[in-house]
Amino acid sequence: MTIHCTRCGRILRNAKSQTLGPGPTCARRQAAENTYKPAQVEKAHEVLDDHGIAATPIRTAKGRRVYVVVSSSGTDRYMTTVKACTCPAGLKGRRCYHQLAVRLAA
């Protein structure tokens, strides 16, 4: 019997994943979503659905890839990594939905 990921539908080959339901990648993404507010999760999915995220050739000093993420209004673009963002919330040291979108895309 073939068991599929409860989140994305891919075939699960690992016994632990088959028992838990989601595969390892989907479990990691789900864990990341659980630490954000529901409105932030919704906005992050909206950005991904609208293809509002693009990888750049730029990398941080620690080797993290930098992404360009479009704002919810569609007029602004922010440089974002999984740890930082140039949006107003990110500049104040807060986590934003742009960072979540990057986590989900990576």
Question: Summed up, what is this model?
Answer:
With 106 residues, the chain is an alpha+beta fold. The protein has helices spanning 15-20, 24-33, 38-49, 88-91, 97-105, and strands spanning 53-59, 65-70, 77-80.
Task: Describe what this molecule looks like in 3D.
This protein is an alpha+beta fold. The chain folds into 2 domains: 1-34; 37-105, no CATH class. 39% of the residues lie in helices and 16% in strands. The chain is built from 5 helices and 3 strands. It has helices spanning 15-20, 24-33, 38-49, 88-91, 97-105; strands at 53-59, 65-70, 77-80. β1 (53-59) and β2 form a beta hairpin. The longest helix has 12 residues, at 38-49. The chain is elongated. The model has no long low-confidence stretch (mean pLDDT 90).
How much of the residues is beta strand, in percent? 15-25%
Number of self-contained structural domains: 2
Let me know the largest β-sheet: 3 strands, antiparallel
Helical percentage: 25-40%
Shape: elongated
Termini separation comes to: 30 Å
Low-pLDDT stretches are none
* Helix segment tally: 5
How many strands appear in the DSSP assignment?
3
